[in-house]
Amino acid sequence: MHQALLVPEVLLEIFAYMNYNTIPSARTSTQKLLAALARTCKIFHEPAMDLLWTEIHGLEPLLGCVTRLHPLIYRRGTRLYNLYKPTISWAKGVEPLSAHEARQFLRHSSRIRTLNIRSAHPHLLSIIPAEACVFPRLRSLSLSTAYLNLFLPHTFHQSHLLTFDEGLKSFVTRCIALEHLYIYTDHYYDSTSQRSLLSDRIRWCTRLVTLSCPMLDLETWKHLSCLPTLLKLEIDQGYDDPPSLSEQDIVNLSPFLNITTLSFRQLFYAVDIIMFMQHSQFPSLKEFRFEADHLSSEEAEELFHALSRCKAYRTLEEITICSPDESGFAPLNSEPLTSIPHFLCFTQLGTLQLMFYNPCIYLDNDILLQAMSSWPHIRTLAINCLDDHVSSSEVSLHGLFTALSLCPQLHTLRVPINIATIDVDPDAEPIPHTSLRTLELLDTSQSQIADAETLARIISAWLPCVDKVESMDRTWDEVNKHLKSSTAATALYVAGAS
């Protein structure tokens, strides 16, 4: 054996390189390789075993170390469970571990840094003391609260919780230094009984970097607004979570100094969040995402105005606001929103997606030109592309090409357009936009494209890297046929020239 392999640091570096692949199929091969290395010699055993057990998905690998359970979990060398479709059928009727079997179960627990528990058979582990710190090196954990008291040591840094209950108190008490916390509710979130419990426990966390959870109470909002460590905040309001804050409650929020990512999902009552945005400042915010089942015209305008007034106008790079109106609350043919001017102050924008069904967002040549001149770094722009409804757009083909000349980095464009009249001369000298790759256009003219071949020729000349116009209906099928033929002819010409 080469002398270099006797140096622990060198050996760990080599083994870690082999363990780097995160593709599931490749991970299985890597595990077999590490297991083989662990059996090779004493020098290889410990570092190989540490890497083999560093990331474990499910309790089955640990329970498989128990002599009695091994044949139930493995047959002919194959596990009887699927990580992505977990089953507990093998554990039904199985007696809990004995004290001796608990030691077998914990044989490799000190090596594990990432543990993802998807199955549910906590009864097997009832012999292990509830306060035992059985995974001392654990850094990342995903589990339901049935396992909280077993798998949350003092050195723990990251947690993904599938649900929560009184066990969360023990969790937070033992993990004041928690940095990443993800709490996912069941299908129905009982806000009355659980919001207070959840909020109380989160306030124990004073070093959070990332938090993803259901709606919180006022005191917890105030707590989070003062946390200097908090960088990412995601709130999932849920179906059964009615408004809980009043305007006089939230006027004294601190400025959320260091948050860079703010996300609100599954909002069915947007009033709370809009008030929250109106009274908050986010001087470091780079990404904002807002998904509501329905926003009225008034609520949408209030949200856009609040976002434009916060201190993120120098930092925001990505904005996504989505309101599909899946419940059909909005009256048909609502007045379109004149919202684009609210976003002109965000000069660092790289992505803007305003996905509205009803009401839609008004767009014309002048607004689009002004927007593109304000966003020199824009790479993705999507407006009103949720469905094949009639959008409110007066953008023409000439207006589109003129605006595109101001944003050379634009890669993806999804906007409504009116092509009742082709206002671009097919024989005029084009100004090619060579960055655009994805183009989705919703024709608002509600008329059949009269000259698909000419339109395809124009698009091909001005947008040479676009080989297809995407659409939710078949309006562009004929144009795309000609675009495909043009692309094929160009490829043949280039091949022949070379």
Please describe what this structure looks like.
The model is unreliable at 168-174 (pLDDT under 50). The chain contains 15 helices and 19 strands. It has a 15-stranded parallel beta sheet with strand order 1-4-5-6-7-8-9-10-11-12-13-15-17-18-19, with helices on one face. The protein has a two-stranded antiparallel ribbon with strand order 2-3. Strand 10 (261-267), helix 10 (271-278) and strand 11 (287-292) form a beta-alpha-beta unit. It is globular. 30% of the residues lie in helices and 16% in strands. Helix 10 packs parallel to helix 11. The protein is of the alpha/beta class. The chain has helices at 8-18, 24-38, 42-52, 60-63, 70-73, 99-105, 167-174, 191-202, 218-225, 271-278, 297-309, 365-374, 397-404, 452-462, 477-497, and strands at residues 55-57, 74-75, 78-79, 114-116, 140-143, 158-161, 180-183, 210-214, 232-236, 261-267, 287-292, 318-323, 351-356, 363-364, 380-383, 393-394, 412-417, 438-443, 469-470.
